[in-house]
NADH dehydrogenase (Micromonospora pattaloongensis), 868 residues
Amino acid sequence: MSPPRVVIVGAGFAGYQTARTLSRLARGAAEIVLINPTDYFLYVPLLPEVAAGVLEPRRVTVALPDTLPGVRLVLGEVNAVDLNARRVRYVDPEGNPGELDYNRLVLAAGSVNKLLPIPGATEHAHGFRGLPEALFLRDHVTRQIELADATDDLVDRAARCTFVVVGAGYTGTEVAAHGVLYTDELARRHPRLDGERPRWLLLDIAQRVLPELDPRMSETADRVLRGRGVDVRMGTSVTEVRKDGVVLTDGQTVPTRSLIWCVGVRPDPIVADLGLKTVKGRLLVDEYLTVPGHPDVFACGDAAAVPDSTRPGEFTPMTAQHAVRHGKLVAYNIAASYGQGTRRPYRHRELGFAVDLGGKDAAANPFDVNLSGPAAKLVTRGYHLLSMPGNRVRVAVDWLLDAVLPRQGVQLGLLPAHAVPLDNDAPELVRTAR
Amino acid sequence: MSPPRVVIVGAGFAGYQTARTLSRLARGAAEIVLINPTDYFLYVPLLPEVAAGVLEPRRVTVALPDTLPGVRLVLGEVNAVDLNARRVRYVDPEGNPGELDYNRLVLAAGSVNKLLPIPGATEHAHGFRGLPEALFLRDHVTRQIELADATDDLVDRAARCTFVVVGAGYTGTEVAAHGVLYTDELARRHPRLDGERPRWLLLDIAQRVLPELDPRMSETADRVLRGRGVDVRMGTSVTEVRKDGVVLTDGQTVPTRSLIWCVGVRPDPIVADLGLKTVKGRLLVDEYLTVPGHPDVFACGDAAAVPDSTRPGEFTPMTAQHAVRHGKLVAYNIAASYGQGTRRPYRHRELGFAVDLGGKDAAANPFDVNLSGPAAKLVTRGYHLLSMPGNRVRVAVDWLLDAVLPRQGVQLGLLPAHAVPLDNDAPELVRTAR
């Protein structure tokens, strides 16, 4: 009898961890296949540092073939799951269809940019979920400062020097914090800007930055951002996005060429197509992370609605910490399903959060101890290095170089805006046709 | 009276050096404007190391605003020169037209991929002049190994594991030498390839690799390449390129998805449009690097046919060494033209060549001393670090990391093939429309 085939859809935090843990547990007792559009696991929390030019893009990737021995990687985007036939269909990087039968299925498709019905957002806002989007933003921001330097039209210059971030969660806060440091440094190298300082706005309908985290972390982030001149406007969002500006909920129009959309995430749309029960787009699972009525189908990470044992009736939030622990548990429970060990329910304990604010600043609350400044910075960077499943030396070296050398301020111009649309089911891929 | 405006077209070796030298000489006595499609000087000799994943792409760029104080950068591609009106027309990165008047003009537009009338080459071959092309190749080669691993079709697998480089000059030789090391390392990480070793072919109609350099350097390169299993076929070229293979001049068909076009360079087409006298597409200049009949127009680098003082009746070859020295001389002669110093004719002496062959190998002949192995490697890397006008620490650190860590083997999938066509007047830019 051949070993059962476990097909894992998606190599984000949850899927990667499932594959990694299962490859250690199984030792040949299961055939593990991982389907993912890219050949790397992306360490998403460091994307803002890619956008600000601190880290090279490959630094935040971990090659799947190198770090998952015994796991077969199939490059492709899953577009259909046939639960009755136990088969997954996908499209490979050259556009050819493929399919895979499974004995156990793990749906860890992750999340994509959250869209809101705001006129013009889909056309003119730039998302921030994948590496192509972060690289587009790095090039775009750099180019805006250069074009501001080149123009003699002061209105145009001001618009190009204005950057608006919508959404003051983890991502938006870090993007604004790193972004303002980067554009300040660029502006100093462009003497024709004549001291005009690039302007960053950070908007959120919530009343404080980092609304989902501890209020003391919000205070730290707010203080650091305002200290750098970021225009932090809470209780404010956008009602319209135009090519040359945004209209705010308070009626004001802000001329800008840069609207960075960090409004949050929604589960990958593949989940909604399954015809199974979902909660806000997430696939409902039981405490063992199996889909009710389908004991061979597991879901985890952002794509799964996992009951939160600490808050009855609620579901675990869409964070990397949960995704990692979901992934490990799914691996254990799959091993149990074919006789290795016994299955367990999902339990968790918050370990705290870490927000890198660029420069020497950060906000962190490891094990409920609130930190700011260099202490938080140390904890944050240490946390990231420990959390990355590979490539740590290169990341640490880039941080070291950034501390001692001037930041590189060039745009490679690799990605046109239409290659990274906001309305994108696969932000990890570059869209090649308009 | 306002100082004369010097407009320099192109920031390759020649144009960059003109701007740099003139900014030191002029000290405000001239207004210096540099027009270039990118905001960086590209250190082209290290592109093969970008394609093989040794160096990050930004490492081989030097930001123009940072390293050329007092020089105004205009981002744009020059599309017309009006010699009578003394005006240059260009298109900016957003597609808008612009124009600049000049008192002195320096044409340093450089070169692009050389095309040959071989059926299918324009459609299926991949060029190697700009950073986008090098990054495309890195992604493409990586993806071919991954797709070879994924397929069970042995014919398809063999084609994907075959890489053909046409042109055994400096670039092609380095691309093949670095490429075979990279794909060997990738293949080791893909156990499903079952020991199938990627195959590299290096073709040239010449009778030896590096035909323009000293025969002892050819011997070194040939020995190293063959030692690594590269199929070196001299006196051979391609007669047809298809999507799935190439036909060689000996009639053999080689199935491959990868034809890398390193046939040489031709001057940027802008030069031919001027209506001035050219030699093989290069703008003819006198020994002072001025255009006959146009004392205010200078040309240098690959775009200029400069009389070779050591070989009467011939012109200096299209090398970086000449371009750098052209650029310096143009700066001196422009300064002389408005009264700083006296103009000088072009004289040069060969300093030798350095070819990096990857791993611990290189071939170099500094001051006519022939070196191979680690000694040549040291000279070659030292030469590059000294020749780069910036970013040396980052390049040295990447080399160090590559020596001690496994090479990163991921493809970011940033560039589709149609974004970097071989038939490209501006290989430094990504073509955004099909």
